[in-house]
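Final report, closing paragraph on structural work. Over the funding period we assembled a curated collection of sequence-structure pairs, and we close with a single example.
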Amino acid sequence: MTTRARSFDSAAALYAAHRPGYPDGLYDAVEELSGRPLAGARVADVGAGTGIGTGPMHARGARVLAVEPGDGMVAEFRRALPGVPVVRGDGDRLPLAGGAFDLVTYAQAWHWTDPARAVPEARRVLRPGGSLAIWWNDIDESVPWVAEQGARIRAFFAADGATRFRTLPQGIGADFVSRTVGWSRRIPLEAHLANLSSHSGFLLLGEKATRAFMDAERTRLRRLFPAGTIEEPYVVSVHVARLG
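Its predicted structure, as stored:
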């Protein structure tokens, strides 16, 4: 799992340029479910990557400290958000003071942790009344062309055996409350393919095999989107546990 998680470091610039962001409705949901505004909140954004989730929280007035293990991702983070502090570490070993944060967030990152370690660490750094927020941003396979592409990707990696389980943690000491937020973005076909190629399976696959898969996808998608622009539909699922 560590090799897979750290694969993003080799393609941090690709990740920063082409991964989708998050809709405003996500941050509205985090505020509602945590029971407090982001403005003025002390937030630890764990597995912050290039800062895709960190930046909007900072823009809303949160006092965010990012935690990220990868050299390449940290370099991109600092380019994008020079005014936001970032420290080296991961969810299993948070280099943070105990009881110091109102909110600990994992944007597309919880599935890279060992919950047996990450849960006690999240509890340790949260103040009483603080919240743990975990979210995932998934392309919406209720849309037919997306479902067909997803099926091709799963078939392609059938022998890979690297399934990532997205299970909410137990033992946090509070129940999770969940929301979903649908949204979409319009991007060039090539940007869509670049986004796909930034996922860990393709990063570990290697350039030659990845290029062959993307070439085949390009041919299929040009028939569906002759103007060369794709609307990618997404659903963000956000889960917040508020400690008593």
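The chain is about 40% helix and 25% strand. The radius of gyration is 18 Å. We thank the funder for supporting this effort.
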